[in-house]
Design brief:
about 300 residues, alpha/beta, D-Maltodextrin-Binding Protein, domain 2, Double Stranded RNA Binding Domain, about 35% helix, binds ligand PBG, Porphobilin_deaminase_N, Porphobilinogen deaminase
Length: about 300
Amino acid sequence: MKDKIVIATRESKLALWQAENIQAQLKSLYPELLVELLGMSTKGDQMLDSPLSKIGGKGLFVKELETALLDGRADIAVHSMKDVPMAFPEGLGLAVICEREDPTDAFVSNTFSSIDELPRGSIVGTCSLRRSCQLRMNRPDLVIKDLRGNVNTRLRKLDDGEYDAIILATAGLLRLEMNDRIRQRIPAETSLPAGGQGAMGIECRSDDSDTLALLAPLKHEETTIRVTAERAVNERLNGGCQAPIACFALLEGDSIWLRGLVGSPDGKTMIEGEIRGHKAEVRSLGIQLADDLLARGADVILDAIYQ
Ligand SMILES: NCc1[nH]cc(CCC(=O)O)c1CC(=O)O
């Protein structure tokens, strides 16, 4: 058995919180084990001011971490499942998906306490096409303005008065102990979350059986089933968190309820769907739901965006 695990991590506050959380869980499971962090800056972090669509490419925030895993400089990388691409480089894979935090989007404002309270013409910050297309659908009168940077940067821009409100993931704010910033946890009916939102996952070398064994107790069964369903939708739609795609699964006993949508960036068209079935079939349910969305017009919307 190994006596040391090195965790490759980005250096944003949220990434560090997540890496340290896994470090603490491993330490409490294995008091003898050394668990070290290897901080690194990724291409996505270095280009925080360019619009995401310009720097392009999925997995902007994970590539450097994966290189460290393949080099053997690190053993595991902790990710927000929302940001993890479907395909892994040869030799790497997802080891476990951990218990999900609140998956909702949060409404954050220094003036208003919910979306409904926003006056006509209010400026709302987000850089997520998924969030903006749903906002535009519900509230065509709002002005949506791009908002980039890590969680702390986005909050500072709100406080500087550039926006009347911003939308962030509830999970990130809870992890950074900024609960008081959350004015409203937006219900899934109003803002359907991104696949994997609120869940952390751990990546490692596929042939590293010692590490896989050490990580096994961190797997959360219910979250794994839900996120696997959501990722099947994204896989079929060929979309990551930069696409106007939302999907969200709930487990009710042995039955899964999976909802998904694809919206046009202008907020004028929204293709929505849902499917229910047994939890053992989540991958095929996710693919069926995606195929249903594609057949009803999501293909046209996504083709225009991926072009
Ligand atoms: N795209 C950035 C990102 N990736 C994961 C989270 C939040 C934590 C999570 O969803 O697990 C965030 C910030 C946000 O969307 O506000």
